[in-house]
Fold these 4 entries.
Entry 1:
Amino acid sequence: QSPTMAIRELDRAISELRLHAPILFTNVNGRKLDDPALWPVYARVEKLGVPLILHPSRSGKLLGLERLTKFHFDNALGFLYEGSLAIASLICSGILDMFPRLRIGLLETGCGYLPYLMDRLEEVYDTEGVDKLIRKRPHEYLDQFWLTANVSREKETLVHVVSRYGAN
């Protein structure tokens, strides 16, 4: 909630405790990841040379959370939404241009949605003026992301994702 305190704790965690990466929810009390208040945190993560790990939030700020509780849809659909919004926000806002050495690890969202998301972001790039906000096409930022795959459930989908974007 406090970028200043987050930076102080980040320095301590990486430098003193020797942790490998900080983790941040995909929204901070409803604040999207492209909020300028978070930019100093990204600058420090980039300077420290560690990846920033994102985990979907199950907080009350998750879109439609009250409708996602049955069948554990908060995990199956809510995490997918949160991960997609995080990727889209970081790419389309220019955050990844401002911090080109920032690496993002996204946990528990799977990877099967990636081709669809990239197709839609390419459309946004071409039709909504995003081409004036960022330096590259959306899919060209994928080298700054690590996504986790649910290997037991995404076997067939993973083959498609890897064939389209590569295994790395």
Entry 2:
Amino acid sequence: MTVRRHVLNLGGKTVDVRIGVEALEELPRMLKGVVGAPRRAALVHAAALDEAILTTVRHALIDVGFKIEDVALAPEVDVSRAEAALTVWSQMTACGLTKDDLLVGVGDAPLCSLVAFCAHVWCGGMSSALIPLTLDAMVTAATAMRPLSVGAGPAVIETTPMPTLVVSDVSLLDAAPVDDLRLGYVTLMGTMLADSRKNWDAFGALIPRLNQRDALATIEAISIAQLGRRGVLMSAVPAARNALTYGVETARALRSCLGDNIPWYALLAEGMRFEARLAVDAAKLNPDIVFEQDDRFEDLGIEELSFTLDAEALIQTLKAVMAERSNRFMLALPKIPGTIRLTSVPDDVLERHAQAYVASRREA
């Protein structure tokens, strides 16, 4: 099957994105030219990763001419923390990697984010190749990293990752549990709403095929998302560059209130549901879009959460988590499909919607 290619221009650097079924079979060809003269490559992965995938990647690197240094991260290494970057950098130092070498990451979104970040600052920037293994990582690896936390502080260390190559083999998703796919679906939903009315509608048409695990539909959705996310990052309107945080701040607040046992995809979906309703008042969003979003979550099997929470506690927590990143209380709210902007929300509007929201989620 043909592998789709997108070359994303991200302000002076390009990211080569490949998406297809059994795309890893063509990995040697894709790796050619990723650096000037292949010499050393450090392969970063979780120690427990499927050996068959690692063998495929190792053979591809060897075929191109790289000597491989294996960096297997033990289970106790938390890749969501800045300390993990020090672990990787220490290994890179031991390997003698230079800016002319290659850093390769194989794994989920947090691991791909860590690898891209480490490469981005090594010797002022070195080449990196990412092989995401989850749907959400396939959607985001080229354009966004998961923030890293340091010490007891919040996760605020992040940058645009700028990997050199991202290869997404959607056949790796064939046996994935449905819950593992849902974060990708929610991320796609937010991306499409930020992109355009055309692609918002296109995503709705793809949902039945996504539910059937149609590989071509998955490739199409990921492909559309790459161009949409690139458009957000390179927008000429500063307030539009935060569009991909739609739903995220409320999701972070809900996690703080409800604990870590609820899957992130469910919290992010709740964040988007709540912020869409805020947008009706604060950004004049057509309520029909809110109902369309609700229907799409339902079609994807992403149900509303039930919980008991005080509205004032939600408001204060939301303000607190936003204050960790900004001195302004502004949410990325949709105005129309294709336009999500940082928007001020008056206190009375926030209170009214928070009261209605927690009442609708109250457990019997």
Entry 3:
Amino acid sequence: MIQDYECRPEDSDHGMLEVIRTYQLPVPEIYVKMEEILRFAKLEKEQNRKPFCTIPFDHTLEAGAMGGNVRYGNETAGPRAEKPICQSLEELKVGICLGMDLEQTGTDERTSDGTAGKLRKQGEEVLFQMSGPLTIWNTLIDVKHILKGIRKTPDQMEEIFGMIETEMLRLLVEVKRREYGL
């Protein structure tokens, strides 16, 4: 069923933090432990009056699965990049070539254990949220390297964009396979 949904991204982080405070949810457990992920997804949906549960709740899943340093935050700030692991576009290419490790702690809980499937069995509609290339790279490398690369070495950046596109599609296929048993 197609349904319009008023998107208010400016309210997103505030709404999530309000849910954490209101229900005194444990951080970082709500980002990495199945029972807390399920609980938070339903509470966040209800609190923000959304027609669906959104998973994952943060924009670090893909970068974390690629070895990025993620700080899961606290009651006042959600997950975010810590220190970049790549210092050059060449290092970034090598990291992307290694691919996403979907079995990594935290990533595994949010993708392979059927989070969306468990929510659906409980009668919930689910939206699987993915980050874009720049958001992913922001955790892996100082974005100034990306912006400089776009301007100075567009062919190299086109290759890197193609590589991240392949990884993002692989993630979608894997989530679908794990959630639907395909």
Entry 4:
Amino acid sequence: MKVVFIDLPGPVKGFNSGLAYLAAIAKQNQATPLIIDLNNNPVKQQERINALKTLRADIIGISLKSHTLKSGLELAQQIAGWSAVLIAGGAEVTLEKEQFLRENPVFHYAFTGEAENSLPVFMKFLKGETTPDRVGRLCYRAQEEAGKIKSNSVELI
């Protein structure tokens, strides 16, 4: 499974340790992770995004903060037609929860808060080994309830 995490350009530069943790967790669970750091390295941004399509990622996660929300939504629209499952995470999603997913149908799923414990279970869900209600911190559209948006419990790390 190929998992890509994207850190968007913003006014505050620095290492996104949350995405690094998620990449490590993905790797520990037999996935191939990649972080695209557009915040600290904005060179050839569009070329790097376009190259993602040939990578054929299974999951693309975008880290959203208040100041990156607009550019994150634009990027999500750009890659929405790809075969990857598109997930949102970050402070903006954590604040809005179900409302975020309701207002941004381009995303398939959203994580609220830290997803280090949830990511491996989410990957099992995508493989058909469990159900979405078992994935902590996950916001999703419930297929059995006409797309009602649900938010799973929050477990502390």
